[in-house]
Each structure stands twice: as C-alpha cells, then as structure tokens.
Q: What sequence folds into this?
C-alpha cells in the first residue's frame, strides 16, 4: 500500500519535473499521453513560461527527438531499425513522415556499410563482376589498381624505348658502314612509326581493367537515406548506359563502366524511402519486391533499344529497409504482394494529425518554432529569420489550436504551420526587427491563406457588393441557406466562414 502511494507520488513528481524542463527525455518509451488538457488560455499561459523568445529553447541533437507528437511512430521507427524491418507510414501531408524516415538512419549501425565495385569480366564482357568490400576500401583499391597500371605502362614504355634505341643504333652503324643515307632516313621513319604504333597498342585498353566504384562510402559515413520518390525505373533499379559506339571494339566503353547503380543499391545497409509507392509501375514494384526478398538485384539496361540491354551485371547488394509513405489510398493501391511482404515482415503506422493540448505539447510546439527558425538559419541562403517573442509564439499556438479543428487539440500539420512561421519571420526580417512579433504573425496569416481561401474571400467580397449576405454585425431575419467554405476538410481551417 505504502509502496503504491510512493509510486503515485513519484509519478506525480516526475510529470511535474517534465513540465518544468524543456527536456522531453528519450523519444521512446512514451506510451500514453496522460497529461491533463490545459484549460488556460494561451495568452495567459505564455506569461508563465521561462523564456523571452524561442532563442532560449534548447533543441535536441538527434532528429528523432525533434519529431513532435508522433511517439508511437517514433517507437516503430526505432524498432524497425533495430530489427531491420520495413515500414508503411500513412498520414496527412506535412506531419513528419519523411522526417521520421530520415531519423531512422540514426539507429542503424555504421560498421556494416559497404563499398561496391564492378569489374570487367574477361570471360563474358556482358556480365560485369561485382565485389563488395568494407566502406572506405573501394577508393583505395581503385587507386592501387591505377598506380599498378601506371607502373606497368612505364615499364612497357621503357622496354620499348630501349629496343627502339638498339635498333636505331644498329641502323646508324649499318648506314655508316654502307654509306647509304636513304636507307637511314627510310629506316628511322619506319622505326619511329613502329615505336609509336606499338606504344599505343600495348597500353591501350588497360584502363578498361580498372574497376568502377559503384557505391562509395567513407568509414565514418552515416548509413544512407535515399529518397526514391517519383524516380524513373532506371534511377530506382539501376541501369546500364547506352554506348554510342555499340560494339566498335576499341572505341566502345567497357560494359562494367557503363553500369549505374539505382536507389535500391545506393540504399544498401540504409533506408529507402518511397512516397506514393503506387505511382511506380507494377513491374517496378515487382522488381522492388525481388530486391527486398533476395537482398540483391542485378543491374541491366532499362531501355530496350540501347546496347545496354545486352548487359546484365552480377547481383548487386540491396539490403535496405523500405519505408513506403503515402495516404491510405496509395497504400491500398499498392502491389498486393509488396504490401503483404511489408505487413508480414514489418510495421504499418498511421501518423497523428493532431495531439492533445497539454502543457507539455504546447512546449513542444514552441520548440518546433525554434527548430524551424534554426533550420532557416542553417539553410544558409536568403535572410535568416528572427526568433519569436512570446506574443508571436502565443499566436502560433492559437493557430495550431484552431487548425486542429477540435477542442483540446493542437494540429500536427506542421509543414503548413511552419509555412506561417517562415512568412512571419520573413516579414520581421524585412523590417530588420530583432524578434518576430505578434503583428508579423497577424500579417503573415493574411498572406499565408491557401488558394481556396483566397478564392472564397474574393467570392464573399463580390457577394457583399450585392448585399446578399450579412457578414458584419447582426440582424433579425430568416436564414434561407447555409454553406460552409473550407480550404480543406481535413484542415477544417476556415470552417468558421459561413455564407
Ligand atoms: N511531427 C513533426 N515534428 C517536427 N517537425 C515537423 C513534424 N512534422 C512536420 N514537421 C516539419 O515539416 C517539414 C515537412 O515534414 P515531412 O516532410 O516530414 O512531412 P511528410 O509527412 O513527409 O509530408 P508529405 O506527405 O507531404 O511527404 C519537416 O521538415 C519539419 O520541418
Ligand atoms: Mg514526405
């Protein structure tokens, strides 16, 4: 009994502590948000916060800890990374799917990274050989190989030159003894010609023995994150470039040099992210499935009429974790076998569109503003935007409440909210203001209206001219009809507009 009460006390203390600090703690292990919904109005609440602007807010280093309001999805991402499982991520645009996918590489081991080399195959030119070496070794192998060839070439040249000199000397002796100058001229002409001919002959083509570094990493590189959204088949699955000289022996570029890796190969030992996977053709989804099952895929020419179509490399490793994102529709239209593969060997997550309006989440949103300001700063182009003061923070928080469309919730459509942050920041930067203030956010809201809302506004304006409707003050009368103009039903952003 006493232990129980101790525990509850401990829990209460812990939650109080969490509210006091900016630390979220680790992103994982957070199960259910039990905090009470904050009933205090944002303007009032912000007065009790221990910062003067977003500049005072510490930002976690890891990307996964910067993701806000997607605890369940964060857990899945980490689990999937640990266990090497594929993930389907479904949710509204701009709620952090790409961000979560990108953060996954932070959990993947770096030691497993591999360099991949393609070699000429002397037995069958059209089936280049593929070798895998630990990360960082690839470039060394190539430079060693190049040095070796240079050495060999120098040696050949030296021998050749020596032979030419000996023959030249013999020729000279013969000329001196016989006195026939014409033989000498003629002989040395043939000698010089023969020397250069042999030299090019003997050294030509040895370049073709240098392997091509298909996938290159440094030892300390992070595991790759490859976004293959909307790529063509060649870019996704690899391709063999067309050779304009076709089979013209000497002129032709050797097949192994024309092999190009696809996203599936570049994502080896990392994450392959594909948004709107149903946009891929069925054959491509099929090939993707093969790559996932076999963990390797040969590279062959993708355009049928090119000479590249003859070539097919040995299998190249494709040991990636697939993250397929999109809306529900796009998942339902995906290749059934592919979907089933992911369901059977991975996770499906639905990311949140809103979160509860608690103190902790309000603080997280403030951190979000700080993150966006810092991202703009790190971008390095354009003017950086000033940090947000309390008045502007409170407006952004109110906007998040409003955009959620429900009481006691905060919107997680953070890309759009970030848009408002950026426009307000731009306005402040233009003025040279030190901090972004409430007036900037108010003005930004006018500018940041979605197109649909701008159309609706125009419509309202015109209707007002004919005095068909009342949008100011109040009047006693009869309502003949009601209509709701919304920018987006999911956004329920402007559903307050009533005609
Ligand atoms: N949950 C979140 N936490 C913090 N920032 C977020 C979150 N969601 C979105 N953002 C911000 O919005 C930007 C866009 O988010 P992201 O690209 O991850 O969205 P998405 O879900 O992949 O959208 P889409 O479906 O359009 O691809 C991020 O770079 C980040 O700045
Ligand atoms: Mg995305």
A:
């Amino acid at each position: 009994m006493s232990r129980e009460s101790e525990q509850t006390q401990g829990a209460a203390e812990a939650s109080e502590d969490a509210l006091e600090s900016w630390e979220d703690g680790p992103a994982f292990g957070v199960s259910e948000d039990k905090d009470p919904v904050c009933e205090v109005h944002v303007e009032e609440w912000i007065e009790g916060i221990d910062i003067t602007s977003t500049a005072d807010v510490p930002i976690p280093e890891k990307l996964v800890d910067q993701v806000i309001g997607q605890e369940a999805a964060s857990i899945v991402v980490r689990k999937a990374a640990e266990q090497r499982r594929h993930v389907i991520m479904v949710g509204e645009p701009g709620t952090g799917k790409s961000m979560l996918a990108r953060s996954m590489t932070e959990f993947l081991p770096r030691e497993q990274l591999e360099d991949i080399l393609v070699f000429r195959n002397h037995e069958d030119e059209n089936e280049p050989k593929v070798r895998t070496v630990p990360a960082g070794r690839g470039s060394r192998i190539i430079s060693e190989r190049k040095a070796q060839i240079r050495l060999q070439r120098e040696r050949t040249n030296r021998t050749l030159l020596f032979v030419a000199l000996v023959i030249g000397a013999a020729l000279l002796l013969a000329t001196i003894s016989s006195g026939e100058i014409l033989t000498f001229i003629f002989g040395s002409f043939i000698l010089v010609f023969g020397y250069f001919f042999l030299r090019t002959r003997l050294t030509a083509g040895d370049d073709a023995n240098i392997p091509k570094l298909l996938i290159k990493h440094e030892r300390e590189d992070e595991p790759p994150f490859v976004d293959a959204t909307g790529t063509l088949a060649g870019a996704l699955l690899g391709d063999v470039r067309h050779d304009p000289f076709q089979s013209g022996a000497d002129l032709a570029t050797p097949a192994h040099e024309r092999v190009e890796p696809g996203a599936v190969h570049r994502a080896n030992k990392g994450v392959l992210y594909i948004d709107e996977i149903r946009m891929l053709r069925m054959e491509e989804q099929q090939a993707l499935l093969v790559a996932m099952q076999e963990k390797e895929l040969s590279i062959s020419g993708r355009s049928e009429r090119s000479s590249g179509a003859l070539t097919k490399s040995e299998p190249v490793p494709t040991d990636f974790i697939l993250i397929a994102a999109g809306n529900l529709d796009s998942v339902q239209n995906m290749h059934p076998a592919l979907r089933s593969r992911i369901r059977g060997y991975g996770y499906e997550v639905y990311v949140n569109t809103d979160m509860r309006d608690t103190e902790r989440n309000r603080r997280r949103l403030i951190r979000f503003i700080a993150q966006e300001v810092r991202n703009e700063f790190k971008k390095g182009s354009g003017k950086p935007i000033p940090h947000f003061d309390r008045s502007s923070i409170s407006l952004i928080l109110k906007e998040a409440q409003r955009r959620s469309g429900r009481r006691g919730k905060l919107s997680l459509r953070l890309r759009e909210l970030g848009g408002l942050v950026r426009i307000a920041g731009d306005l402040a930067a233009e003025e040279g203001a030190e901090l972004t203030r409430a007036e900037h956010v108010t003005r930004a809201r006018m500018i940041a209206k979605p197109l649909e809302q701008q159309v609706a506004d125009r419509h309202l304006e015109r209707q007002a001219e004919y005095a068909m409707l009342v949008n100011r003050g109040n009047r006693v009368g009869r309502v003949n009809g009601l209509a709701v103009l919304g920018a987006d039903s999911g956004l329920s952003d402007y559903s307050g507009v009533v005609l």
